[in-house]
Task: structure prediction
Amino acid sequence: MYKTITDFIKHTYNTPPPINLHEPRFIGNEKKYLAECIDSTFVSYVGAFVTSFEDSVKAFTGSKYAVAMTNGTLALHLALRVCGVLPEDEVITQALTFVATANAISYIGAHPIFLDSDLDTLGLSPEKLLTFLKNETQKKEDGNTYNKKTGRRISACVPVHVFGHPARIADIVRICADYNLVVVEDAAESLGSFYQSQHTGTFGLASVLSFNGNKTITTGGGGMLLTNDEMIATSAKHLSTTAKIPHPWAFEHDEIGYNYRMPNLNAAVGCAQMETLDLFLSKKREQAERYATFFAQIGVDFIVEPKDSRSNYWLNTIMLNDRTERDAFLAYSHSQGVMTRPVWRLMSQLPMYKDALCGDLEQAEHLEARLVNLPSSVRV
Ligand SMILES: Cc1ncc(COP(=O)(O)O)c(C=O)c1O
Result:
């Protein structure tokens, strides 16, 4: 069976090995805009491409505001900060995520709580979230929710749209509203994914996208904070530019800010990439359909977009029977030059988070042992 799968992937991509997991594609105006950017001399974070890039992402996602940053991890750090997460707060997220989600919570000095995932969406399970909040927390007179065991305030929840598949975000937002938790969506992987026809990353108070080289579109490195809240957007822009008060020459800063703003050079690439996003998404959907048909024929479980969702199919994923089969397939496919990848280790298994607070992680553990990502680059 492993040979049948790798032969299919080799045949589909029809390029000499290695067949990488997700390569960037530059088939539009990238070089033209980069040259324009260099000629303008505005290569750092002051420049027209930054604003254009933000405008095109706003138009695509329907988000009211967008603030471009150097990468998704730092955008998430800042999003938590401007959404009011404080040191020593607790922040709920899922155990099955990329480490950046948990790290951004730690940068604040807050404590992550790792909960379970849905087997179909791979995102935070609303049922497990509700069970945790009902059993483990209490709401106090100040309106905040506190962890009964630690006494700490739980201020936010960071659900993740894993591999571009939308989490059940409307349910998550509803539950969090009842407990006065801010929702910051980690939409790093889900540009082009919609839940009930609304773009992921526009449900919470804020969200972040990533434009790392392995994402659906890239700016080399980059991220963006999305929000419909003007105060959040203004505060994020201010803090990401060293909290400098705009002035033609004076250096006035009114808070401890960060140097997180995206440079114009990266945004120039982003503008060109946004022009090809629709094409990339349709090609990725075609590839996912090809995989789905093939895996149905050989009886392997292929992860399809969840109910009520339209996924960008950032990384195509299969679920094998157990860890032994997963590891054997990973070894075989790599020996054939086909770059496959297991899902991340659960955050609670990493040394720095081994003592972190956790709910029951039954479904996340099941997924962690079985999921494998397959080559998913846009075929050109
Ligand atoms: C789920 C998730 N969160 C956060 C990030 C961080 O984004 P970046 O690599 O741009 O810092 C990534 C991607 O790399 C990611 O996949």
Summary: The domain at 2-26+277-344 is CATH 3.90.1150 (Aspartate Aminotransferase, domain 1). The chain has a mean pLDDT of 97. Residues 208 and 225 are 5 Å apart (CA to CA). The radius of gyration is 21 Å.
